[in-house]
Amino acid sequence: MSDSAVSTSRALFERASVVTPGGVNSPVRAFNAVGGTPRFIRSAQGAWLTDADGHDYVDLICSWGPMLLGHAHPEVTAAVQAAVGRGTSYGTPTEPEVLLAEEIVGRTPVEQVRFVSSGTEATMSAIRLARGFTGRDVVVKFAGCYHGHVDSLLASAGSGLATFAVPGTPGVPASSTALTLVLPYNDRAAVEQVFAEHGDRIACLITEAAAGNMGVVPPDPGFNGFLAETCRTHGALFVTDEVMTGFRASSRGYWGIDGAQEGWVPDLMTFGKVMGGGFPAAAFGGRAEVMGHLSPQGPVYQAGTLSGNPIATTAGLTTLRLATDEVYDHIGGVAETLKTAAAEALTRAGVPHVVQSAGTMFSVFFTDPAHGPVRNFEDASRTDSTAYAAYFHAMLDAGVYLPPSAYEAWFVSAAHDDRAVQTVLDALPAASQAAAA
Ligand code: PLP
What we know:
Radius of gyration: 21 Å
Largest sheet: 7 strands, mixed
Strand content: 5-15%
Keywords: Cytoplasm, Isomerase, Porphyrin biosynthesis, Pyridoxal phosphate
CATH architecture of the largest domain: 3-Layer(aba) Sandwich
Shape: globular
Order of helices and strands: HEEEHHEHEEEHEHEHEHEEHHHEEHHEH
Pfam families: Aminotran_3
Number of helices: 14
Cofactor: pyridoxal 5'-phosphate
Main location: cytoplasm
Bound molecules: pyridoxal-5'-phosphate
Helix content: 25-40%
Number of domains: 2
């Protein structure tokens, strides 16, 4: 697309770059990994985004997961408008909080939830609770699993497996990651080793229920169950982060297609994205025995001025009530169609790739299948980012907004109808050729 075709986005981006670092309010929105100007979106309807210059795009980002029903769903919009008319925040308990908590408890194995405003707060609070409950300090996480911008979790692996982590970004003091252990994903031997060495100090192990933040990397069969059992043996809590997968990978999150089948239950879970229906709402939850340690019932402090905000909880509740089995069937079908077509087009163009899924989530890795499936961060890092950048821009020019990074899931919604799907299918051959060039 020529520069003049996106002149309004360009002008806004230039102004934004003066008053906002990098011109964006979250780094994933920038086009640093693919080059060019991020589109400033003026409005969205169903499966479509419209930018400030009037171009329409099929949205395969869906706000990085939340928009399960598509944009501006009439029933969600009406419920939110009615809620706004009743006042936007009271700082008191409200009925929508109870209803949304009941909906989440009904779909997942948690007995109680506490609402917060972002996934970051959810994981941060879950870790504090795990530490308060166990009286231990050490946290184990996996490389490539993202849990928000919590200091102790913005950590990179230490020099050896059982060596404590180092800060993953300037601004995080070494003391904040000195109690974090970072392991390779899907590596049972590494988990066994650190629990053998540090088991009696480990408060919790936190993992994405299925990794989605290094592209979609599902746990090996039985891996999550093994983690649950290892934690149980050593008296540590098993925390599954379902901020991305919750109410998205299936109606009951990734747990619905993993733990629910295999018969294990996490001690704590975190949720976000879909449960806020596009508003800032997130939660952490677990067994009543563990959750009871939270203030005001217990001693572990946790709070939030806008936690359980009536507009956000209304949007989330309406979204979840509309997220029926038919919705998940539709999303699963669209995902299947798109990933099959993407793989075929790349094969025809001779571009090495690997396509992976976790429930209805999927992503396309520009990696060589000769290396086998992508099982961890090291595998994901083999991605050909240059090929992806060419592919991304060809798709964008053809009216498809993919994530501007090769390490992301592609998200679809209940509103991705035949017209939206066909637009993507039509764009794939030329984009695959562009990636091959
Ligand atoms: N956990 C996971 C698995 C996520 O994917 C994210 C965000 O992408 C977070 C936590 C952090 O959520 P938020 O961006 O709402 O703070």
